[in-house]
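User: structure tokens for this one?
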Amino acid sequence: MPEMTKTAADEAVAAAEAVPEQAEKARSLWGDAWRDLRRNPIFYISAVLILFLVVISIWPSIMTSTSPYACDVAKSAQGAAPGHPFGFDKQGCDVYARTVHGARASVTVGICTTLLAAVIGCLMGGLAGFFGGWWDSLLSRIGDIFFGIPILLGGIVFLSVVKGGSIFTVVLLMAVLGWPQIARIARGAVITAKQQDYVQAARALGASTPRMLLRHIAPNALAPVIVVATIALGTYISLEATLSFLGVGLKPPTVSWGIDISQAATQIRNAPHTLLYPAGALSLTVLAFIMLGDAVRDALDPKLR
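Assistant:
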């Protein structure tokens, strides 16, 4: 009897010690995603680039003390000079200063458009996927109407009749035309999530609709939305530059890479540096957000593990 009692006690102690180990092994989707991100060098590269862009967008003075509006026509299209490593553009403005200050407009448009499109898309797609029925049909058809309008073409048509392209106008237009893509992803994710056992159990226990949406469905349906939104952010930045290049997006005196590229296009043979630096900054920014989106997708998609 004493030996049996001792053996049972040892087994109980071993089982108690195993509980923390099992709890440590049990990870959530977000915990596993963060662990995978920390092991991905692409995540660190893109995160450092994006952090750098955000910092110079907020405080461009830490990179240059030259005003992007300080121009000297006598230095038109001249090359690099002491204190002006990127040379001067056609108007004699410092290309380095305009490249640094141009990050603010591009990053602001990209982030604000993504956030607004994500809010609208998650709201419309989430409601359509959760309630189904005629709600799904109505909201899905509304999304199809906007989805059928190409963002670039719609932007050209709409902004052509709007005087004075501001950041707010460009953000609002791109978000209104860009939310259907996120709405489709959100709708599918919500439909998948609401069929899970934990949602059915919450419904059986009498959980209210807002509680089920916010506590049980939304956290488990956000992963694909975050992936699409992160990749779309780079697309919105390039789209803003395209609209500004065509002369219908942001307008001077706003400093934008798209505006500088448009003005430098005619000088590409005589002064290629006026096009190289703003175009390179734009490409690097879009690449950074696409790389971040790929890293987040790899981390949040269990099928890729």
